[in-house]
Amino acid sequence: MRAVAAEGRRAGQRALAPAARAALRWAISEPLAPNPSPANDKATVGAVVVHFRSEETLDACLRALTTQTRPPDEITVVANSPLPPARTDGRDGVTVVENRSNVGFAAACNQAAHALDVDYVWFVNPDVRCEATCLERLLAYASDTAVVAPVLIRGDRRPELSTKTRRYVTPWVLLARELGFGRRLRLGAGHPVATPAVVTSVSGACLLAPAKAFLAVGGFDERYFVYGEDVDLCLRLAPRGVQIGVVTNATAVHASGTGAGGSTPDDEVRAIKGREARRAHALLLERFRSERAARRYLIGLRCVLRTRLAMAERPEDRAAYEWVVAERRSRS
Predict the structure, then answer these.
(1) Which tens digit of pLDDT belongs to each residue from 267-304?
(2) 3 pLDDT band (50/70/90 cuts)?
């Protein structure tokens, strides 16, 4: 049985595209070196914040951006839901782009990135409050071939496990995290690092990317409506020689889960989050593992969600379950 299972894993790996295999082999392998070039002193930076019912945290986010020791040259707020003018009035350098509908996080980020003429694009979630020296310290390590992110911390100053390892993109890890014990055991999460280091993937909640490299791969894949686009981007950039790094002396406070819909999201927002998180997992598995891995994940996920719904009805689980049923039917 072990030989059969091993052969199945090898067959699945052979089915991967070479670039995807290279991305999944890539893990923490070296420290992240600072950029010795003085060019970053004059580099231009455009910050991008995507708003969707994030009035609760947006003010603090923008205030933190405009009061950086090295502030961004431009700040673009892409509004995927109506934004009261008072939220941005009087803030120098803040441009608001209003969409008629919610186009999703990835598409909104790309929309802003294409409109900016800068050296670096700084993606910041509305529920993130960057500490004053964050951008200055990120720029010390950023380059044309390095995407960098700060250490994300909670309000109580504890660090988040915001980096991912290559094992994150496996059906069993994603299902274990779905059941709860995967998160407790930190399955698929990167190990905390004491000094700036190269990692497999960083969080898109606060990420500084060289504009040329970001646009060269088409930006975020817009099939990811919300969630998963950051892991996908990092795994696509790595085989192109772009390092993904964490700058440990740069920090940002992340009020995780309060950006879209606030701290008490309504049923519509909860349904979107529940469905799109699971859809993102299936997309990651299909691209970087195999279609078989995605099918296995969907089979396991359907069982988990059906059991959960039998115990309690929640909009996020119901929306995810209905999507899984439809997706499995379309794949059969």
Answers:
(1) 999 999 999 999 999 999 999 999 999 999 999 999 99
(2) very low
Average pLDDT for residues 125-145, to the nearest whole number? 97
**What pLDDT is stored for residue 299 in this prediction?**
97
* Tokens encoding 292: 């078989």
Residues 117 and 235: their CA atoms lie apart, in Å, by: 25
Closest-CA residue to 307 (of 321, 325, 323, 293): 321
Give CA–CA dist 126/144, Å, rounded. Answer: 26
Tokens of 303: 């069982």
DSSP-based helix, strand, coil % in the chain, nearest 5: 45, 20, 35
Q: Is 268 left (phi over 0), alpha (psi -120 to 50) or beta?
A: alpha
**What residues have CB less than 8 Å from 258, skipping those under 6 apart?**
54, 56, 57, 127
Residue 89 has pLDDT above 90, yes or no: no
**DSSP assigned state of 123:** E
The answer to whether 79 touches 51, Cβ cutoff 8 Å, is: yes
Q: Is residue 21 scored above 60 in pLDDT?
A: no
pTM over 0.85: yes
Max CA separation in the chain (angstroms): 67
Contact, 15 vs 290, CB < 8 A? yes
Task: Quickly count: other Cβ atoms within 10 Å of residue 296's Cβ.
Answer: 18
β-strand pairing of 94-98 with 206-210? unpaired
Residue found under tokens 């014990």:
181
Banded model confidence at residue 88, pLDDT cuts 50, 70, 90: low
Residue 239, number of CB atoms within 10 A of its CB: 17
CB under 8 Å, gap of 24 or more: what pairs does 173-180 form? 174/281, 174/285, 174/297, 175/297, 175/300, 175/301, 175/304, 178/300, 178/301, 178/304, 179/304
